[in-house]
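Thread: Newbie trying to understand structure tokens

Hi all, I'm a second-year student working on a class project, and my supervisor (Dr. K.) asked me to get a predicted structure for one chain before our next meeting. I've only ever worked with sequences, so writing a 3D structure as a token string is new to me. If someone could post the tokens and maybe explain what I'm looking at, I'd be very grateful. Here's the chain:
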Amino acid sequence: MDIAQPPLPLSPEMIARFRAIVGDNHAITEKTDIAPYLTEERGLYHGRSPLVLRPGSTAEVSAICRLASEHRIALVPQGGNTGLVGGQTPHHGEVVVSTRRLDKIREVDAASNTMTCESGVVLQVAQQKASEVDRLFPLSLGAEGSCTIGGNLSTNAGGTAALAFGVAREMALGLEVVLADGRILNGLSKLKKDNTGYDLRNLFIGAEGTLGIITAATLRLFPKPRAVETAFVGLKSPADALKLLSISQNEAAGTLTSFELLSDIAVGFSVRHGIDIRDPLASKHAWYVLMELSSPRDDARATLESILALGMEQGIVDDAAIATSLSQRHAFWKLRDEMSAAQKPEGGSIKHDISVPVAAVPEFIAQANAAVVKLIPGARPVPFGHLGDGNMHYNVSQPVGTDTAQFMNRWHEVNAVVFEIVLRVGGSISAEHGIGVLKRDELFEVKDKVAIELMRAIKSTFDPFGIMNPGKVL
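---
Reply by user tm_fold:
Sure, no problem. This is what the structure looks like when written as tokens:
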């Protein structure tokens, strides 16, 4: 099947066969009911589909894939529909397979520090279940109230705690996956050590549903911290933030869990457009850091105060506020979490999810800012992100008073300028959002050619008829 070609129309007889698998109530054909599955959060993509299937078990997913394979019917897996690169959208009329009903926590094993859950479990629910047994599931994203575990793994999500705990890949010990032909890979495991051949699990993590549909995962849990301390810091530059990061890592001895770099314009947008959001500091600063320490002991406050004191002594920290209550901590994080949404009222925003070596972040920001403004005079760079692991959300808002459509039509021009600098400093054009369709064409320009050949070979082996999320990634 040529994945570049739209799929053939789905006959009433075939719809009936799919309906029989999931039941009448879970096969959606009405246009108004299908509509929420066709658009994504930023409004960049609007898909079409004749059918949305909502399986309630791995067996039903298997039957769907088996029938689709037999008749060469393209499928688009979808979790919480919070993706930002168009990977979950049915662009050419494919059948959507929603995993939201696969929402069972199969087991929580505190002794093994593991939790086995189905792919439709909402991330926030997984966090809560871990907390109930005095454990921590540390993956944390702005969309955690609606994104799902399957989507997190399929995109290899990062988030604000990746500095300490790694990305989604590091949090999964085993997977259950339905392949394109309906076979079920039973790879759920609690083992941290298992040298029995190829690591198939990691092929599916980050594959964005192009190799199979993740239906369950065994996740790693961690000791629940006894003390969490959060600070909002004002500084002069990203270079100073980098120095503060070094001090923090030396002083915190592994308890530094988040270190977010925020530009003044990003903070200003959140304060201006957010609800009940204010700047925690008395005066404005050119740059800010939102940092957090999580400790199994009650020493986090003293450590944080020591870090900030050293920063002030060295002329790095200009001002800082330490959260004195849980509500204040939540307020600090709300300011950070609302940054993407707060850009919408400012008009068009061309977004980049990139990573560079941590030491290169100040250089990247300076060069990218200069290049973007030179390309589009008046453009407003809005950089913020996870300085601790080099992942920056380098967004560019349109010049004030200009036409949004004309600005957004320059998306690929701006991409080219930004990506050239990213590659020059040894970075990646996608850090935690994936490739989807948004960055598919650019991938071929920046990825090692042999790597692309191997990816194509793997895709052909797992999905010979090209029915699994066609046109995404490759």
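A couple of things are worth pointing out once you decode it. The mean pLDDT is 95. The two ends are 14 Å apart (CA to CA). Feel free to ask follow-ups in this thread.
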